[in-house]
Amino acid sequence: xxxxxxxxxxxxxxxxxxxxxxxxxxxxxxxxxxxxxxxxxxxxxxxxxxxxxxxxxxxxxxxxxxxxxxxxxxxxxxxxxxxxxxxxxxxxxxxxxxxxxxxxxxxxxxxxxxxxxxxxxxxxxxxxxxxxxxxxxxxxxxxxxxxxxxxxxxxxxxxxxxxxxxxxxxxxxxxxxxxxxxxxxxxxxxxxxxxxxxxxxxxxxxxxxxxxxxxxxxxxxxxxxxxxxxxxxxxxxxxxxxxxxxxxxxxxxxxxxxxxxxxxxxxxxxxxxxxxxxxxxxxxxxxxxxxxxxxxxxxxxxxxxxxxxxxxxxxxxxxxxxxxxxxxxxxxxxxxxxxxxxxxxxxxxxxxxxxxxxxxxxxxxxxx
Length: 368
Description:
Elements: H1 2-41, E1 49-55, E2 58-65, E3 67-69, E4 74-75, E5 82-83, H2 88-101, H3 127-131, H4 156-163, H5 180-194, H6 198-210, E6 216-217, E7 231-233, E8 237-239, H7 249-252, E9 254-256, H8 258-269, H9 276-279, E10 301-305, E11 308-317, E12 320-327, E13 332-338, H10 346-367
Antiparallel strand pairs: 1-2, 1-13, 3-4, 5-9, 6-9, 7-8, 10-11, 11-12, 12-13
Helix pairs in contact: 1-10, 2-5, 4-5
């Protein structure tokens, strides 16, 4: 009897050891392949990036490449904080959904409910249209004269005044066209309903609630520990152009690092901020009036990588580029943050997600 029990125990221990060995070998092989990709992309003496890969909410790879500050010869570290650009739109969209769940707005509310004198040119423009980039409002980042206000500290309404009288690109719901103006108006709506500044709202309702201690609304005056420098490369590296953070505002003014962004992704997965039926609205592939898919929800592009659904978004702001990819079916998250707008992480972040899927498929095939 004792022999049978011992044999059973030994067999179980061997199985656990083999699974652990296989998992460790897989992790080492995968990490080596990712290292090769990223070592080829980033030169150690130049601005670089930080990448994180997670499976089932746990980090399986995290590494930094290049320099945080080339003037002071400071290497990048994984805890460093970056401007995340348009990945800010995820936080703006979820802030709107928090207000929706609280019963403080409806997605079909017209924007004139919050900005009564907004010139809609006879069209019905709703919060949904703003979230989904289907409003037809002209994006202020494509308007001539933008650089004339780029360094000025503007109120949200002053920024809205800059673009509100421009001709519309199309009727609401007729087309999809990526639009920063819509997310500026969403920021103002959040302020109007909450009575708080956009930055204070996101910090209180999201960052503080989730203990995202390395995430902030950006400021040039405040000191943020671990914030990296941003660069351009125009016949040589230069410091990023100075702009007021009131310009990107709720479309692109947040700071974060890869660990906090994983915390954010896990919180969304676990419905810590809003219920599933509300959050699912952000991940719905909405259609236009002609039933053509937009391939965009609220703050996320909806695409595919290796035939599996991918929820993703990038960011680009002076001196910085970012990209995050989430594969919900496999619970895989890949994020890359760069401190030079000369070296986008978009393509390589998607390549890493694809590689991870291929490695997992290969391991599953070998098991069979």
